[in-house]
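Handout, section B. The chain below has 293 residues.
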Amino acid sequence: MTAQILDGRAQSAAILDRVEREVAEFVAAHGRVPVLATVLVGDDPASRTYVRMKANRCAKVGMQSRRLELDASISTETLIEAIRELSADPEVDGILLQHPVPDQIDERAAFEAIAPSKDVDGVTRTSFAMMAFDEGGFRSATPGGIMALIDAYDIPLAGKHAVVVGRSPILGKPVGMLLLARNATVTYCHSRTADLAGHVARADVVVAAVGRPALIKGDWIKPGAVVVDAGYADNQGDVDYEPAAERASYITPVPGGVGPMTIAVLIDQTMQAARARESARAGDLTPAGTPKR
């Protein structure tokens, strides 16, 4: 068996093409361009690259990207103040705090300074709760991208056993909740899980999200399973790709799988946020100021 590639580049391009049309319609209807504000703390080369990529995608669809760069030595209080100013800025539709942030920063406190109606990266507690209860709101961008990629290939999830390896609040935990909402049976695994190989071997769907190169071995994969590798491109992913691809039915490459989908969802949700602001002006507002799906 040779797995079919889950092509994140092709599917993200389709999303961005749609958003480009929606932006043009929005500008014609409302006389303004949607704005995504990105906040970068410090000069980490990888983070700077990611922010630049997001700005480029904004430009491609006709959105405006506003970049705020802050010194690596700033305090949590200074960062929170800057984010609150963006939250209150009537010209800003979405806010992205590029993570990780320097060690002295309380990242969770900084995330919570983002107004839920502008949390297009889906990192606040409000966004997580609304997603978990299926009450609209914004999905965490990478989990949202994973679900969009699975849906693009019409992969059924109901009744399937999904194993999520990783439990971060912006990737592992939310993707498990999204899979659960689609009637999959979800098992979370992590650094203290006993017999990780055994859990993975029983999975119909494996989502690897730990940032450890080749942690998931190819011979762990159940024949015919769907393998989604959300690991970093810099370390070539969390899954030992070649042997896993020989056993899986579908698999994401790294790079070119989940990464492009993350950015596409971020841009798409910025468009949703802009529309929600205009709906608010017309008095048609959902509980957290975000559109129902």
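Note. The mean pLDDT is 94. Compare this with the example in section A.
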